[in-house]
Design a protein that fits this description.
The complex is a heterotrimer of chains A (364), B (277) and C (315).
Chain A lengths: L3 E10 L2 E11 L4 E5 L6 H9 L6 E6 L2 E2 L10 E4 L11 H11 L4 H14 L15 H14 L4 E5 L7 H18 L2 E6 L2 H7 L2 E6 L2 E6 L1 H6 L4 H6 L6 E11 L2 E6 L4 E4 L11 E6 L5 E2 L9 E12 L3 E8 L2 E9 L9 E6 L4 E4 L8
Parallel strand pairs in A: 3-8, 3-9, 6-7, 7-8
Antiparallel strand pairs in A: 1-2, 1-4, 4-5, 9-10, 11-12, 11-14, 12-13, 14-20, 15-19, 16-17, 16-19, 17-18
Helix pairs in contact in A: 2-3, 2-4, 3-4
Chain B lengths: L7 H28 L4 H6 L11 H9 L2 H32 L5 H10 L9 H10 L6 H25 L3 H9 L4 H9 L4 H17 L2 H6 L8 H11 L4 H21 L1 H8 L6
Helix pairs in contact in B: 1-13, 3-13, 4-7, 4-10, 4-12, 7-10, 8-9, 10-14, 12-13, 13-14
Chain C lengths: L1 H45 L2 E4 L2 E5 L3 H8 L1 H36 L6 H13 L2 H11 L6 H8 L13 H16 L1 H13 L2 H9 L4 H12 L1 H16 L3 H7 L12 H10 L9 H28 L6
Antiparallel strand pairs in C: 1-2
Helix pairs in contact in C: 2-3, 2-14, 3-7, 3-8, 3-11, 4-8, 5-7, 5-12, 8-11, 9-10, 11-14, 13-14
C-alpha cells in the first residue's frame, strides 16, 4: 500500500484546460473521495492518476516513485469503473484473473488469488458465470474483485455506485467501507454524491472547474467550509444563504445587517472585509431553531412565511419565504403543528453559522 | 402488424400472390435439380416428369471427366483466403479509425470511404496492365488481392460502426489490467464484434464466390479457373448434353445454397447490410 | 537526472502507439492504393493516350473521347447500347422493384409462413449470376427448353418462339431473368424499411379509420423513402454495369442484331477486342470507362440528392 502525491498537475485537451495545478497528497491507507459537480474534472483527475490520460504538466508519485510517464499497468493501480467494464465474453473467474494472466502469473497462483477474492466478496458460487447472468450488485462486486486480485498499491473507483438502485447503493457503501478496513488499502474514490463522500471518506477533496476548493475530513468540511462553494455543496439539504451588508468591522468581529433589520456581530479573527462590503450569511437547515424548539440558539432570527411542509415522521422540513429571501429550508426533528401560511420565527446561533466575504471565502 | 380478419378477399389475394411467387422461384430450381438426374432422352421426352431414378451418371461424368471439381476448389480457395485477408486487414484498419484519436483520423476514414464509390470494373484496363507487370495475371493470388482490396471499404465501414459502439471503459479496464494494445484488440474488443464480422464476411463472400467478371479478364489457363467462369467452358464442352449441364449447374449452386439454408437469417442480414441503415 | 529517463520513457510510449497505428492501417491502405486507387486514377491517364496492345504510344489528348462520342460508326454503336441500358433500368424499376414493393407490403402484414417466404425470395439472390443465366438459357432453349415445352403442353404453340433468338424478345427475356434473380433483394430491403416505421404511426392511422390502401400510400410509402433511394441508385448502377446476363446468354456481340448490346459489352469489346471491334484498344476502352464512370457517378449523386429531398425525418 502506498502514498499518492500530485504536484502541479495540469491537463489540457486541446485548448480546454480541465485540470488546473492540482497539489494533493493521499496518505497510505487513506480513503480519499474526490467530489464535485459534473464537469469539475474529478474523473479526469482519477484517469490521470490511473494513466488512462497523459498529464500535460506536473508530477505524479505513487509509493515514492514517479509514475506519470508509465503505462497504467506499471503504476500499481487497479480501477473500478462506473459501468463495471466487465469483459462480457469472459466468466467471472476469467474476468478477475485477467490481469494476472496478462502478467503471465502461474495458473495455480491465479486460481488461488481469484478464489480468495471471491471468498471475500461472496462470489464463489458465481465464478463460472458470465457477467450477463449476474445482478447489478454482483457485477459491481466482480469489478471490485478484479481490482483486489491484482493486489494493487492504490484502488481507484470511478463513480462505482451510480448505476445501482438506492437501496443497493447504501449496502455497497457499507461494504466498501468494510473492505477498506479489511484490506487496509489506499483508495481514491470519485463521486458526485456528497452523501457517499461524507459517509465513506477519511478525507474529501472538493473540486470545481478543475481546481481544488478544499481538502479535509468530512466533518471539517461540514463545520468549517473554506468558502461558499464548499459550504453549499457539502450537506443535504444545502445551506441557506442570506445576502447582507458588513456595517462595520471591529476587533469583536463583523457587524452584519440582513434585510428586514436583523443585525448581529459575527465574531472573527481575520475579517478580510471592510465596512460596506456585500457578505453572505449561511445557516444549514438543521441549525435553525423554530419557535424556541431545537438547538439553534437565538443569536438572531428571521421571520418567514411557510409555503410548504414536508413531514417525514421523524423529521419535518419547512420551506419559507422571508422578504426577498426565498426558498429557505429549515429542518426540525419530530413533527410540529405548523401549517402552510403560518408565520414562523427561525432563530440561528452564530457559533453554527457561516459568513462569506464578497470573494466567496469564509470569514472566520 | 395486426390486420383485420374480415378482409377475406384481400387475404386470399395476398396468399395467392405470395404462393405464386414462391412457385416461380422454387419450380425452376426444382426442375434444374431434377433434370440433373435425367438422361438427355428423358429431358427431351418427358421434361416435366420426375426422373425415373436418382441416377448419378451425370454427376459421375462431371466428377471424372470435367474440370468442375477443380473450379469448385479454386473458387473455395479464392473466397476463403480473400475473406480471411479482408476481415483481418479490415478489422485492423477499422479498429485504428474507430478506437483511437489521432491527427488525420478523419482523413483516413474519408480515404477508406472514397473506395466505396469507385466501381473497380471500370478500371479493369489499367488494373490488367498493372497485374500483368506484377505477374499476377492468370494467378489466383491476383484475384485474391483484387477482391480483398475492392471489398475493404464496405468492410471497414461496417466494422467501424460496430467497433465505435463498444464502451471505452472496457478498453480502459484492460489497459489498467496490463494488456498490450494488440491484446486489447484481439482478446477483448474484436471478440465482441463477432456478429459484425459474420455480416461483413457474408456481405463480401457471396459476391466474391459468384464473381465472373474478374476471372474472365485475369484467368486464362483451365486449372486456374473459378466456378462461375469455368462454367462457360463447361457449357461449351457439353453443349448438347443437357443432363450433364443441369447437373453441373446444380453442383455449382449447391455449396452456397446449403450454407444459405442453414444460415439464412445471417445471409439476409449480411447481404442487405449495405442497403439498410 | 531522472527527468531525462522520464522523458524518454514517455516519448517511447508515444512512438510505440504511432507505430502500432501505422501497423494497423498499412495493410489495408496499401491494398486499397495498389489495387483500387492507382488503377482508377490510371484509367483517366490511359484514356489520353493511343495504345497498341499493351504498349502505350503517343499522347492524343481528348481524341479518344471525341472518337467515341462523335465518330459516326462508334457513336451509333454507343448510343444504341446506351439506349438498351436505359430500357433495362426503366424496365427493372417497374417489374423488379415494383413487384418487390408489392411483396414487401404483403410480407409486412405478417402472413403465415413469413420467414419461409423471405428465405425463398432471397434464394435466387445468393446464386451466381452465371448459374442463373445458364439455367435460364437452358430453359429458354427453343427446342429442348422447358419454357417452350410448357407452352406447347398448354396449347400455346404459337408462343413457343426462340426467345433469345428474336430481336424483339431477347432483351425482355433477359430482363425477366434478371428480375427473377434479384427481386428478393429489394423486397427484403423494403420490408426492413417498413419494419422500421414505428407501429404507433400505422395504428394511429388505423384508429383514424384510414383504409389499408391509404395507410400504404400515405404512411408507409413516404416513410420508407430512404430504402427507395438506395434501391433506385443500386438498380441504376446495376443496369448501367449490366454485363453477365447478356454476356452469358447471348454473347459479346449483343446478338441478335445488337438487340441486347449493352455499354458493358461494348466496353469489353473495345478494350479487349472481339470479332466486330477488332484488336484490343486500351485508349478508346479507357475513354469509354471514364465516360461511364462520370455518367453513373453524376447520376447517382443527383438521384440521391433528389430522392433524399423527399425523405421525411421519422424522429
Amino acid at each position: 500500500m502506498a502514498k499518492v502525491e500530485l504536484r502541479g498537475v495540469n491537463k489540457q485537451f486541446g485548448s480546454v484546460h480541465v485540470i488546473k495545478d492540482i497539489n494533493l497528497t493521499v496518505e497510505d491507507h487513506e480513503f480519499v473521495v474526490f467530489v464535485g459537480p459534473s464537469g469539475c474534472g474529478k474523473s479526469t483527475l482519477l484517469r490521470l492518476i490511473a494513466g488512462l490520460e497523459e498529464i500535460t504538466s506536473g508530477e505524479i508519485d505513487i509509493d515514492g516513485a514517479r509514475v506519470d510517464h508509465l503505462a497504467p499497468a506499471r503504476r500499481g493501480v487497479a480501477m473500478v469503473f462506473q459501468s463495471y467494464a466487465l469483459y462480457p465474453h469472459f466468466t467471472v473467474a476469467q474476468n478477475m484473473g485477467y490481469a494476472l494472466r496478462v502478467a503471465k502469473e502461474d495458473k495455480a497462483v491465479i486460481d488461488r488469488k481469484v478464489r480468495e477474492a471471491a471468498e471475500i466478496l461472496q462470489l464463489t458460487e458465481y465464478l463460472d458465470r458470465k457477467p450477463k447472468a449476474l445482478s447489478g450488485g454482483q457485477r459491481q462486486r466482480v469489478a471490485i474483485g478484479r481490482a483486489i486480485v491484482r493486489d494493487p498499491k492504490v484502488f481507484l473507483f470511478d463513480e462505482p455506485l451510480s448505476n445501482l438502485d438506492a437501496k443497493l447503493r447504501v449496502q455497497m457503501r457499507i461494504e466498501l467501507t468494510r473492505l477498506h478496513r479489511e484490506l487496509n488499502a489506499t483508495m481514491i474514490y470519485v463521486t458526485h454524491d456528497q452523501v457517499e463522500a461524507m459517509t465513506m471518506a477519511d478525507k474529501i477533496v472538493v473540486l470545481r472547474d478543475g481546481r481544488v476548493e478544499q481538502i479535509g475530513a468530512p466533518l471539517d468540511l461540514y463545520n468549517t467550509p473554506d468558502n461558499r462553494f464548499v459550504a453549499g455543496f457539502i450537506g443535504s439539504p444545502a445551506m441557506n444563504f442570506f445576502a447582507g451588508r458588513a456595517e462595520s468591522v471591529s476587533d469583536a468581529g463583523v457587524e452584519v445587517a440582513l434585510e428586514g433589520g436583523t443585525r448581529f456581530t459575527f465574531p472573527c479573527e481575520t475579517p478580510g472585509v471592510k465596512a460596506g462590503d456585500v457578505v453572505e450569511f449561511g445557516v444549514r437547515p438543521e441549525h435553525f431553531s423554530i419557535g424556541g424548539n431545537g438547538d439553534g440558539g437565538s443569536d438572531g432570527a428571521l421571520k418567514g412565511e411557510v409555503y410548504a411542509v414536508e413531514r417525514l415522521g421523524g423529521e419535518t422540513y419547512l420551506y419559507l419565504n422571508s422578504g426577498s429571501y426565498r426558498d429557505i429550508v429549515a429542518h426540525m426533528s419530530g413533527d410540529a403543528p405548523i401549517s402552510i401560511g403560518d408565520s414562523v420565527e427561525i432563530g440561528f446561533s452564530l457559533a453554527r453559522s457561516h459568513l462569506f466575504g464578497p470573494d466567496g471565502q469564509s470569514i472566520r | 402488424m395486426e390486420h383485420r380478419r374480415n378482409a377475406g378477399l384481400e387475404t386470399w389475394l395476398m396468399y395467392i400472390f405470395l404462393i405464386g411467387s414462391t412457385i416461380a422461384v422454387l419450380y425452376p430450381i426444382f426442375m434444374m435439380l431434377m433434370s440433373g438426374f435425367k438422361t438427355n432422352a428423358e429431358i427431351f421426352g418427358a421434361p416435366f416428369s420426375l426422373p425415373k431414378s436418382l441416377n448419378l451418371d451425370n454427376y459421375k461424368t462431371i466428377w471424372t471427366t470435367t474440370d468442375v471439381p477443380r473450379y469448385l476448389l479454386n473458387s473455395a480457395i479464392v473466397t476463403i483466403i480473400s475473406v480471411a485477408l479482408l476481415l483481418v486487414t479490415g478489422t485492423m484498419a477499422a479498429y485504428a479509425i474507430s478506437r483511437y484519436k489521432f491527427r488525420g483520423a478523419i482523413m483516413v476514414s474519408m480515404f477508406f470511404l472514397a473506395g466505396l464509390m469507385l466501381p473497380l470494373r471500370l478500371a479493369i484496363i489499367p488494373l490488367f496492365v498493372q497485374m500483368k507487370s506484377m505477374g499476377l495475371v492468370d494467378n489466383l493470388l491476383g484475384l485474391i488481392f483484387i477482391y480483398t482490396a475492392m471489398s475493404l471499404p464496405s468492410t471497414v465501414f461496417i466494422l467501424s460502426g460496430f467497433l465505435r459502439a463498444l464502451p471505452g471503459e472496457l478498453e480502459d479496464s484492460a489497459r489498467v489490467d496490463g494488456a498490450s494494445e494488440l491484446r486489447i484488440m484481439v482478446e477483448i474488443m474484436v471478440p465482441l464484434i463477432t456478429p459484425a464480422l459474420v455480416i461483413a464476411g457474408i456481405y463480401n463472400a457471396v459476391p466474391i464466390w459468384n464473381d465472373f467478371f474478374f476471372p474472365l479478364i485475369f484467368i486464362q489457363t483451365p486449372e486456374n479457373r473459378t466456378l462461375a467462369q469455368g462454367l462457360t467452358t463447361f457449357f461449351g464442352e457439353y453443349s448438347v448434353n443437357f443432363g450433364v449441364l443441369y447437373a453441373g449447374l446444380t453442383l455449382a449452386a449447391l455449396p452456397i445454397v446449403v450454407v444459405f439454408i442453414i444460415q439464412s437469417r445471417r445471409f439476409i442480414a449480411g447481404m442487405t447490410a449495405g442497403a439498410i441503415k | 537526472m531522472q527527468s531525462t529517463d522520464y522523458e524518454s520513457v514517455r516519448r517511447a510510449r508515444t512512438r510505440n502507439l504511432k507505430l502500432w497505428l501505422a501497423l494497423l492501417l498499412t495493410p489495408a491502405a496499401l491494398l486499397l492504393i495498389v489495387f483500387v486507387f492507382i488503377p482508377m486514377g490510371s484509367a483517366v491517364l490511359y484514356s489520353l493516350y493511343e495504345w497498341d496492345g499493351l504498349a502505350r504510344k503517343g499522347y492524343v489528348g481528348l481524341a479518344n473521347f471525341s472518337d467515341i462520342l462523335f465518330d459516326p460508326v462508334r457513336n451509333k454503336v454507343l448510343f444504341h447500347a446506351f439506349w438498351n441500358n436505359v430500357k433495362v433500368f426503366v424496365t427493372l424499376m417497374i417489374i423488379q422493384n415494383g413487384y418487390a414493393l408489392v411483396l414487401a407490403m404483403l410480407l409486412a402484414r405478417n402472413p403465415r409462413g413469413y420467414r419461409f417466404y423471405q428465405v425463398v425470395f432471397f434464394l435466387p439472390v445468393i446464386l451466381s449470376t452465371v448459374i442463373v443465366s445458364f439455367q435460364w438459357k437452358l430453359f429458354l432453349n427453343p427446342v429442348f427448353g422447358l419454357v417452350n415445352k410448357a407452352l406447347i403442353a398448354v396449347g400455346l404453340e404459337s408462343w413457343a418462339v426462340p426467345w433469345l433468338g428474336l430481336p424483339e424478345t431477347a432483351l425482355p427475356a433477359m430482363m425477366l431473368v434478371n428480375a427473377w434473380h434479384w427481386f428478393g433483394f429489394p423486397t427484403l430491403v423494403f420490408l426492413a424499411a417498413i419494419h422500421r416505421i414505428p407501429t404507433d404511426f400505422i395504428e394511429a392511422a388505423r384508429l383514424d379509420g384510414a383504409s389499408e390502401w391509404r395507410i400504404a400510400r400515405e404512411i408507409i410509402w413516404p416513410l420508407m423513402a430512404p430504402a427507395v433511394t438506395i434501391i433506385v441508385v443500386l438498380t441504376f448502377i446495376g443496369s448501367f454495369n449490366w454485363f453477365e446476363i447478356p454476356y452469358v446468354m447471348n454473347g459479346l456481340e449483343g446478338s441478335p442484331q445488337g438487340s441486347t448490346d449493352m455499354l458493358g459489352l461494348l466496353f469489353y469489346r473495345t478494350a479487349f477486342g472481339s470479332i466486330s471491334a477488332g484488336g484490343s484498344d486500351f485508349g478508346h476502352g479507357s475513354a469509354l470507362a471514364v465516360l461511364m464512370f462520370i455518367f453513373i457517378f453524376v447520376f447517382s449523386i443527383l438521384a440521391t440528392k433528389y430522392l433524399t429531398s423527399r425523405e421525411v425525418e421519422m424522429n
